[in-house]
Amino acid sequence: MRILLTNDDGIYAPGLRALRREIQKLGEVLVVAPATEQSAAGHSVTLTTPLIAQEVLDDQGQLLGWAVEGKPADCVKLALRELLPWTPDLIVSGLNAGSNSGINVLYSGTVAAAIEGAFFRITSIATSMEYVRLKPMDFAKGAALSRQVIEQILKHRPEKGSLFNINIPSPDRGPVRGIRVLPQNIAPFVEGFDRRTDPRGRVYFWTTPDFDCPDPHPDTDVTALAEGYITVTPLQFDLTNAAILKRMRDWDWQEPRE
User: Which of 73, 121, 243, 251 is 20 to 30 A from residue 208's alpha carbon, by CA?
Assistant: First the structure.
């Protein structure tokens, strides 16, 4: 199996290195990832500046992949169109430092990279590890768990272009209680902002690291993750509201006048 590995934390992120070691057990792995951190970049792409790509070697002096001065979606586009010597059988994005559950999926560069892979009809999987306290994360454990979940997904031979989002609970929650396949929570998170004033009297804001989901809903990824379960959510990128579309076709549309 040939695997493209990417992320949004950057090519030098410890989560990516840990996950690479694990998924090398599944096949040949090449990395194309941002040169610098691109967290919460969403599905943005670069249009007006060059996408500089540089080869990066691993600790053994072998080709790890390419660092791209761009966004996660840029990395996948460039990998598939220009950089890789082969078409991958699988695209994996992660291991992200911090969960990508609930509505945060829409902001996530990690998930966006996987979505970009699904555009190309390649099975794509995003994987993230929750943290509940600012302290060193056990990426080795999170990567091992991610690899085992990925193996189980692949065992069922998903259709080309299938898209999955995995979240690994923080070790602070205790031993993993199992795997739950659940829908994405769509309740908005409540974010905090620290208001400050600079030396010139201008007001500015820092986004605080605390995110709270006031309406977590039972049986969603946010709830199960908080209960110590690994969550797996199949995603899709078709944003069409089919129910409303069907009703709108029956509206009495009048041709606009010029």
Answer: 73
Nearest alpha-carbon partner for 176 in 117, 247, 232, 125 = 232
Give the C-alpha distances (Å, rounded to integers) separating 212 from 103, 132, 158: 11, 12, 33
Burial of 173 (0-12, 13-18, 19+ CB in 10 A): middle
Q: Per-residue pLDDT tens for 162-175?
A: 999 999 999 889 89
Q: Read off the pLDDT of residues 229-256 as tens digits, 9 standing for 90 and up.
A: 999 999 999 999 999 999 999 999 999 9
Distance, CA of 44 to CA of 70 (rounded, Å): 9
- Domain ranges in the chain? 2-186+216-248
Count of CB atoms situated within 10 Å of the CB of 39: 18
Query: What pLDDT score does 134 carry?
Result: 67
Write 65-70 long-range contacts (CB < 8 A, 24+): 65/5, 65/11, 65/30, 65/31, 65/32, 65/33, 66/11, 66/31, 66/32, 66/33, 67/11, 67/33, 67/34, 67/35, 68/32, 68/33, 68/34, 68/35, 69/34, 69/35, 69/36, 70/34, 70/45, 70/46
- Side by side, the strands of the sheet bearing 230-234 are 53-57, 63-68, 28-34, 2-6, 90-97, 123-129, 163-168, 230-234, 179-181
- pLDDT value for 132: 76
Q: What angle do CA 7, 10, 15 make, to 5 degrees?
A: 65
pLDDT, mean of each 10-residue run, the chain (258 residues):
97 97 97 95 94 95 96 98 97 95 93 97 97 83 97 97 97 93 88 92 88 76 94 96 94 90
